[in-house]
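Class prep. Write one:
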Amino acid sequence: MFSLRSRRGTSTCYKRMAALFLRRLTLQAIKTENNCIARCLEKHFLQKTAPAQLSVTVSVPRLPSLIHAKAFSVAEDAQDKKNKKKKTETALTSTGRKISERIIQVFDEKGNDLGSMHRADVIKLMDKRDLKLIKRNACTEPPVYQLMTGLQIHEERMRLREQDKAKPKTRPTLTKELTFSSNIGQHDLDTKSKQIQQWIEKNYQVQITIKKGKNVEDPENKMEAIFNQILQTMPGIATFSSKPQAVKGGRAVMCVLRHLSTKEENMYREAQETQKGDILNKENRNDRPPDVLHQ
């Protein structure tokens, strides 16, 4: 009896242990399967999202430079528009029928003041007289416009173009420097004079410094005579920008030569022509036979 109960208890224990083992195996299998599914899903998700993340990562640092480039281009566009607008206003461009202001002051093609007019009335007057409208002054209130013919606009443009050409073109003045001794020989002086003339013809200013020769007692006016000799090799080309003056405690004399201005060149030519005319007149008087008095 006791042995039968013992066997039944052992059998029940085995069954419980087997059920517990099977339960653990089932849980382990489920856990392993879940891990495999999670890894597969994670790998699939990373493959799908990696290009997008990479493009975002690459494009984010470029964003400030793109914004800066856009802002710079906008500033350049604004500057270009401003320059174009200024050039257009100075170039006498017809505004056509697009008048931005409602009331404007109008001058006719003869320069007569027509007073303040509504833009609709101005357009009617343009169509009636077959004229073009030019903006003269946009800073006044009301702005000033003028009616002009096509020929008048063309002539005015040509006049403004000639004025622009006549304006002197300012540019930085460059200076060449040359230093030599008062003991210089004539051949070397001629060579330096040619070099100075080449610089002057290229619109350089030339600063010349002549030092007193060592162990030589030069007369006071020798160095000034050298300057005048150099200047005489370039008649109608150069003149003094600054007169000779003592420097370095009297041990040297310096001057600056420059190219003649257009006005000075014209004056020099006129003086030369006048001088030639005087010489010819004098020669003609000398060649004329003396008057003989007939009684």
The longest helix spans residues 2-90. Residues 50-76 have pLDDT under 50 and may be disordered. The CA atoms of residues 64 and 285 lie 89 Å apart.
